[in-house]
Design goal:
With 298 residues, this protein is of the alpha/beta class. The chain has 13 helices and eight strands.
């Protein structure tokens, strides 16, 4: 009775079903449970847990590897539980160590209820994929991590996404070579971060027609902002929008606080807010009230 009591479901199987559908899967970025619920309300079938947004919302700091594995897993758990049974794709940074560490990382994220994680080949501490100053580990080191991730998952439906950040460090050809190795190691989806220019994106698409590709529509990032139809025609199966909700929320909150500072009350900004009663309904107070009545002592 009610969404708080979630039915049994297989998020990885649902994600695979969506990826195999006729159209690319759209996954806006959630930086907390509330933003995830808003993505669900808007009618999207999948949520992306952004590591950039996690660092910003939890710490108020940039995405430079400051959050630990346990902090990221707990963040993923909260987002996954907020929108279950919608599948959640979660950022798992570098896997938080060597292949043995990756085994625990995969197990913890899977227990948290997410459908998929992506692991990148950066040297720890990592940086946001659209920041300068990144370094990458050797291909063999990353292949070992992917193999460990594949072996560690409890459900074969849990999706392992291999991300390479080599484009900015070693060039596109190296990124493609790495992605091939990660595919052969068992990755279910490939994520080639930050290609620069349509020609590079087309080359990635043509090279990997045999495996699902993820397109990072990073708002303000290095990758050109292609249209949906362009991305679909290139064969990408997943499109994530990692920071749009975060940037929009920041602008809205900043505007409210500027008004409050100037007027000393929020009276002139009330028309820019969701009404309090509407917000209570949105976050599930009627459901809680119904459950309270259902389990009320007799």
């Amino acid at each position: 009775m009610g969404k708080l009591i979630a039915p049994e479901y297989n998020p990885g199987a649902r994600l695979r079903e969506l990826v195999a559908g006729p159209d690319p899967l759209l996954a806006p970025g959630a930086f907390d449970g509330l933003s995830a619920r808003l993505i669900e309300e808007a009618g999207f079938d999948c949520v992306y847990m952004t590591g950039f947004g996690a660092a910003a919302s939890v710490l108020g700091r940039p995405d430079v590897g400051l959050l630990t594995m346990s902090e990221m897993v707990e963040h993923a758990r909260q987002i996954s539980q907020a929108v279950a049974p919608l599948p959640v794709i979660a950022d798992a940074d570098t896997g938080y160590g060597n292949p043995i560490s990756v085994i625990r990382t995969v197990q913890q994220y899977e227990l948290a209820g997410v459908a998929a994680i992506h692991i990148e080949d950066q040297v720890a501490p990592k940086k946001c994929g659209h920041m300068a100053g990144k370094e990458v580990v050797s291909i063999s080191d990353m292949v070992s991590k992917i193999e460990a991730a594949v072996d560690a998952r409890k459900s074969p439906d849990f999706v392992i996404i291999a991300r390479t950040d080599a484009r900015a460090v070693e060039g596109l050809e190296s990124a493609i070579d790495r992605a091939k190795a990660y595919r052969d190691a068992g990755a279910d989806v490939l994520f080639i971060e930050a290609p620069e220019g349509i020609e590079e994106i087309e080359k990635v698409s043509k090279t990997f027609s045999d495996v699902p590709l993820l397109y990072n529509w990073a708002e303000g990032g290095k990758t050109p902002p292609l249209t949906y139809s362009q991305i679909k025609s290139l064969g990408f199966r997943i499109i994530i929008f990692p920071v749009g909700a975060l940037l929009a929320a920041t602008k809205a909150i900043r505007g409210l606080l500027e008004s409050l500072r100037e007027d000393l009350t929020p009276i002139n900004a009330m028309d820019k807010m969701v009404p309090f009663s509407e917000f209570l309904s949105f976050i599930g107070l009627p459901e809680i009230s119904a459950l309270e009545q259902h389990y009320k002592s007799r």
